[in-house]
Amino acid sequence: MNDQIARISDIDVAHHLHSYTDARRHENEGPLQISRAEGIYVFDPEGRRYIEGMAGLWSVAVGFSEARLLRAAAEQMAVLPYYHTFTGRTNAAVAKLAEKLISIAPVPMSKVLFTNSGSEANDTAIKLVWYRANALGMPKKKKVISRLKAYHGVTALSASLTGLPNNHLSFDLPFDCILHTLTPHYRAGSNETEEAFVQRCAAELEALILREGPETIGAFIGEPVMGAGGVIVPPTGYWKAMQDVLARHDILLIADEVICGFGRTGSMFGRETYDIRPDIMTVSKQLSSSYQPIAAVLVNDRVYQPIADESHRIGVFGHGYTASGHPVAAAVALENLRIIEADRLVENVQALAPLFGACLDELATRPGVFESRSVGLIGALEFEPRDGQAQGVIGTQFSRALLESGLICRSIGDAIALCPPMIITEDQIKVIFDTFAQCLDTFG
Ligand code: PLP
Predict the structure, then answer these.
(1) Which atom of ligand 1 lies nearest, measured to the CA of 57?
(2) Residue 143: enclosing H or E segment and its boundaries?
(3) Is 151 in the pocket of ligand 1 (CB under 6 A)?
(4) Is the CB–ligand 1 distance for residue 418 below 6 Å?
(5) Atom of ligand 1 nearest to the CA of 223
(6) Radius of gyration, CA atoms only, the chain
(7) Does the pLDDT value for residue 444 go beyond 90?
(8) Are the CB atoms for 88 and 316 separated by under 8 Å?
């Protein structure tokens, strides 16, 4: 390690509190430094190359250092580096991005509200549900149902939607109006059929609604495919069965498309892959390939019209962020969506999905591996628990072995998630799975 690298490591340990990191361990081990990136690769300061098998955080669809995005950012920066969207202000980039999102939305949507992150988008979606309930004179209809293992973010409200223990422990989140129902994880080989499992998920949802009182439930939120909960691909018929229950009780559906949106599952939105008909959609990540922080909440007329009336009654819609609809972020997102379409990246996902899924399925036949799960270019391989080992130990050890071999993946418990940039090629996928197979061969 040269002096400059050692110095960055020291100042990071001294001053930086990292997300999703054991702070004491970080004090001892220090950071992994990444200094540049290109295509599907990132490089450490010593020039060591890694395949970014997670597209950063499920997000860099067009790959790293895409010159067209750099140009879009620079051009926008030169003319209007910032302006806000409060009190009716707009700019060309944000207006065009709103138009674009409405035009590609997979179900009729009326309006778009911009935020900076997926967490804020989901937080906003819930506030819109509450605002609408009051506007319609249904002030009790404010509870929201989410699912165990869901990931919807980390603001106080979106962390409450999240159904993962690490996002709740020691935070004392104040929202008891958020309820959680079953994770849609069907385990093949269990003594329940897939159909019976789906019926059980729907029956549990309905029982929860009836227990709480349908007049108190405002919305249900779900990711079409759960990402951070371990890449949980829903079983056949799941979304139809769940939506039938919601429709019976007049409950809004929020689709969190923060990971699935813009091609990840092999269609532009997870909605099309699973025939989901949301009233509200949240998007982020692949919206700008994460080159700029931006997210959006799309709402249909059922949601928009009462909100518009209520804001008129009060005189203002009292919500928004300083950087909502930031012009540089919007310009980058617009260009990113243009690239996804022009370079046919969704079609690339469709073309490569069978190979990606087959490679994962092949690895799932290895000793010690429990199952594979995938759709489009998102997948996971889960290890069987080993006697005497705490959950998550094998996952952590294996993802470290992959890192040593030049492949960045994410361990989630004892599952290893993969979500490569959508520009990936067939040969690069083969390299990923050769690396995986070699690590499995040598992993004790
Ligand atoms: N929703 C989903 C499905 C996510 O995967 C994430 C982040 O991984 C979020 C919301 C939160 O997004 P952010 O980290 O931008 O706040």
Answers:
(1) 8
(2) strand 143-147
(3) yes
(4) no
(5) 3
(6) 22
(7) no
(8) no
Tell me the pLDDT tens digit for each residue of 98-126. 999 999 999 999 999 999 999 999 999 99
In 3-state terms, what secondary structure has residue 226?
strand
Specify the length of the chain in residues: 444
153 in contact with ligand 1, CB cutoff 6 A:
yes
Q: How far apart are CA 284 and CA 289, in angstroms?
A: 9
* 390: number of Cβ within 10 Å: 10
366 C-alpha to ligand 1 centroid (Å): 32
Distances (CA, A) of 419 to 2, 16, 54, 59, 415: 32, 27, 4, 9, 13
User: Per the structure block, which two tokens stand in for 397?
Assistant: 């050890």
What is the Å distance from ligand 1's center to 207 Cα? 28
Q: Cα of 160 to ligand 1 centre, how many Å?
A: 13
- Contacts with 409 (C-beta within 8 Å, 6 or more apart), sequence order: 53, 54, 399, 402, 416, 417, 418
The amino acid at residue 71 is R
Residue 344: CB partners within 8 Å, gap ≥ 6? none
| pLDDT tens-digit map of 130-153 | 999 999 999 999 999 999 999 999
The secondary element (H helix, E strand) that includes residue 280 is strand 280-283
**Predicted ipTM of the assembly:** 0.99
pLDDT tens string 184-243:
999 988 899 999 999 999 999 999 999 999 999 999 999 999 999 999 999 999 999 999
- What letter does residue 410 receive in the DSSP assignment? E
* Residues 227/58, Cβ–Cβ less than 8 Å: yes
> Quick check: CB of 125 below 6 Å from ligand 1?
no
| Contact status, residue 51 vs residue 23, Cβ threshold 8 Å | no
